[in-house]
Amino acid sequence: RETPVSAVVDGDNGLGQVVVTQAVELSIQKAEVSGMAWVGICNSNHAGAGGVYAALALPHDLISMYMAIGNANHMPPWGGTDLLLSTNPIAFAIPTGKEPPIVLDMATTTASYGKVKVAAQKGEEFPIGWMVDKKGQSLTDPRRIKDGFLLPIGEHKGYGLNFVIGALAGVLNTAAFGSAVIDFNKDFNTPTNSGQVIFTMRPDLFRDMAEFKAEMDMRIREIRTSTPMEGAEPIRLPGEMSLQRQRQMRSDGVPVAYPVLVQLREIAHRLGLPDRLDDTP
């Protein structure tokens, strides 16, 4: 299915990063011609951080929104215990002038399951509010992650947003949602039929582009220089911390937890690949 402003991309069970990138490029092409475009994806796979794909529209001076259904259900409906929902992330990217662009990338659970797994790999307890057990008691022990489930952001409001993302990135695209989601941590053979969606739009449909960027810069500076609470960290805009980390990693390298480093080396050895990983602390 395809129109000048929409399309459904069948990923043919391909690598998620490749499938989603191609869908974003298609959405950008359509938006540049028609003003806006909505491209849904089915038969895809896990594609990683959503902000990466939303940000692809920024060099084209486009606003973008990305939504996806996670590849394992770690959250029940609000008030329930059956794991029928995933972390279902959403990301936005908004171009600016001289200021760094706004890139918001977040799960609709209080933490992504990736953060939980990293804490478990390090043997570190995670914060109260990330997970609870089936009795609703707070769970912070990384050894017990299989006994609990993630909580939505903003309680019932986050649950509602999570469900809507599932409907738009899953049901609308004929992709997996609810009990149809395949847990890619346990099943390595069944196609996951992962669903994602990308929406892109030209700001100049609504106002002059230069004026839009100038006001975005002004509002960003207004927020950044506003008065912080006593003892609070400096006020940041969405995406600023990630941008700082990205710059640091480009300069100093990407930190990898030691258990992950061991796993990567085991895989490299099994496949006969050279070990190029630096384990310098």
Topology:
Layout: E1 2-3, E2 6-10, H1 16-34, E3 36-44, H2 50-54, E4 63-68, E5 90-94, E6 102-106, H3 113-122, E7 131-133, E8 138-139, E9 148-150, H4 156-169, E10 194-201, H5 209-224, H6 240-252, H7 258-271
Parallel strand pairs: 2-3
Antiparallel strand pairs: 1-2, 3-10, 4-5, 4-10, 5-6, 7-8, 7-9
Short description, anyone?
By secondary structure, this protein is of the alpha+beta class.
Task: Jot down its keywords.
seven-stranded mixed sheet; globular; 281 residues; 32% helix; alpha+beta; Ribosomal Protein S8, Chain: A, domain 1; 10 strands
Task: Give structural notes.
The structure is a single chain. The chain is 32% helix and 17% strand. Helix 1 (16-34) links the parallel strand 2 (6-10) and strand 3 (36-44). With 281 residues, the protein is an alpha+beta fold. It has a domain at 2-109 and 152-210: Ribosomal Protein S8, Chain: A, domain 1 (2-Layer Sandwich), CATH 3.30.1370.60.
